[in-house]
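As agreed, record passed on underneath.
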Amino acid sequence: MGSRRQVRVALGLIGLLSMVVPAAAATAADQASERAGKLVAQMTPAEKIAQLQSAAPAIPRLGIPAYEWWSEGLHGFARSGEATVFPQAIGLAASWDPALLHAVGGVVAAQARDKFMATGLHQDHPRYNGLTIWSPNINIFRDPRWGRGQETYGEDPRLTAALAVAFIEGLQGSDPSHPTVIATPKHFAVHSGPEPGRHGFDVDVSPHDLEDTYLPAFRAAIVEAQAGSVMCAYNAIRGVPACALPWLLGERLRHDWSFKGYVVTDCDAVDDMTKFHYYRKDNAGSAASALRAGTDLNCGVAYDGLRAALAHGDISEHDLDTAATRLFAARYRLGMFDAQATRPRIDAAADRALALRAAGESIVLLKNRDSTLPLKPGVRLAVVGPNADALSVLEANYHGTARHPVTPLEGLRQQLGSQRVGYAQGAALAEGVPVPVPVTALRVGDGSDTPGLKGEYFRSTDLSGSPVATRIDSKIDMDTDHAPPVHALGAGGYSVRWTGQLLPPGPGNYTLVVRQDRCFDCKGHDPVRLYVDGRLLITSTGDNEASAANIAIADARPRDIRVEWQHSGEDQGIHLQWIAPADAQLAEARRVADQADVVVAFVGLSPDVEGEELKVDVPGFLGGDRTDIGLPATQRRLLESVAASGKPLVVVLMSGSAVALNWANEHADAILAAWYPGEQGGVAIAQTLAGVLNPSGRLPVTFYRDARDLPPFIDYGMKGRTYRYFRGEPLYAFGDGLSYTRFAYGAPSVSSAQLKAGDPLDATVSVRNSGARAGDEVVQVYLAYPDAANAPQRALVGFQRVSLAPGEQRDVTFRLDARALSLVDADGVRAVREGRYQLFAGGHQPSPGQVPATFTISGHADVAR
């Protein structure tokens, strides 16, 4: 009896705290707004307008330092020097693990605050040095052709919502009145390409699709996770730009969802309203429309037009006060004006371990014929493919500078021993797309057979003086964004000379490329020179991101090579690349395959061909998007060539989106999807292939067989898209993923076979590890609806990741509330509707013969928007 009384008392205290904590948070928020209002009241109209732009200037007379609002943290704190680089967002989504996303968000926030505090609490803070993180991207990945889909959590609203909530809560921390950082879910709303027209396209989305697909994750981010900010999108919705849309930013966001934070534009979105949407004749009109609609902060300078708008009476000073108060309330909540604050403790080893865990959980095993994997002890590998040893496919986009990046080739050599791992690049990524000159084509020379190039690093920007460091670099493929390539140098000016020999795999026409990673708002690129056999082939004075030279090579003898780089600007990396003759590369790959027991081919895409508004126009790719969802022809030929060796073939897909691996699905022995796996990706892949890790990822997107199975890319209607509305046969289904063990399920049960509309439902299923090794299973619950117009075929309504030892069995229970049981009608009204429902539970989508639990709902219950 005593223990029961203690439980009742504890529950009573919890109930009291649940009332006290929100009240305390509200009081703190009110205090921040009150302080902000008093500060704003002391500003002139011109000062207020300047504060509504992302590069907010200092106001010394009020003790306000300059603050640039733009910082990134999509999968690690980004663009501000060394930081932990986690798997790209789509890879994190493949974990189906909210707890992991929460932990990753916490690391991103801690590293952001650490860098902010290192600059100084009351100092000016430049771009990418702030506490306002413009992440996560929670747009629905509706079509695999979209290049930025890699930044999202996939195609499903519920999975996206759950992961977004976890990540945002990890970013902002447990104290809503004093967040670690402020999260900014984006792009609000209905934004997912095409990239070439993103600054001016209009979406005529149906009310049903808007409520059913495009808004749920944003609602969860605001209502459940209490995100402190949101970013409005470039596109228009039914003729009105999103950043000037009153019903979206006012009625839905602030009224229906009770949003109290601030709205920021995507960069230059207000300017786009004038130049591309032709919404208003000038930026004064566009800026006034955005401000009145509820957009507080402009990324860019178009809000300068508010000066003219104020003079013409199109806005009031009260409008300025409202927006500026919201912004300064956020800065007060973040502690930017506190007398003192402490830097967080950064545990680099723990963060690296989390990156490894994230990479491991993201890997999806799609095929494993005759238990090809895990690899047998003592196996000799042939590693081939353009993604086996490339930095870009680890880091993806919106990334920090990885402290300890490990490529798949490096990871396998560490795991199995270098003597058991042969390597040949084998192919270009796609026709006309250069890839890093591989270590097999470089050696130090001067009588040495050591692979790589000798790198000499100078503190001067003109290669003068003695080098402060000399080392062997396996290749020139470096990320130097706000971080020097060696610690003896500063992050600013320095120079590097690489010397050695180029070993072509065979005769033919080669294109050598030196590419420098762009930086935003740069005045130019670093000078660079490339010499082959003493002849100057490339000299860049800083005008281009990439400089190329064609060279005809008649034989495979070594050529002397020298690269000189004068890092005097803001470039963020340097890469020595090539396009090598296809026949020579294929022959080299076949020779390596013939000497091995198993071939592991690292194929796929890269951030060089899929991404944000890229300058790419080659077969299969356009402007960052894809026109063909198949594996590029160069890589298909590579797979066919090495498969002809007769050796078992393991395909590892590294990409930010689904790729139609039709040939590999039929001919390869095993297939893994590893995404863009972050700095520890090579370790995780190697450990998974070797069986140290048991793969447990699940697909967050559908893998279609052909783009022709889909509606036109520009069509935002959901009919025929994603697993919920696609009627065809996919190559791999959303939710798919295999394991090295097996899981068995009992029939699911529900708490009631007769349910009143609006009441919750509990569903329970028993899952058992029936295999011989421990593993993680992702238990998935899908709902099939009565014959209702606009209803999806099925929809994910719950999921849980569980770890089970061999033979272990567990009952997993899900609480399905009214929202989870609801449907959206043609008018966009969400409600629980009467009818007979089927509930399926298992490790994948419902399959033929699977026994569901059935229940009937009586009555009707509206669900809040």
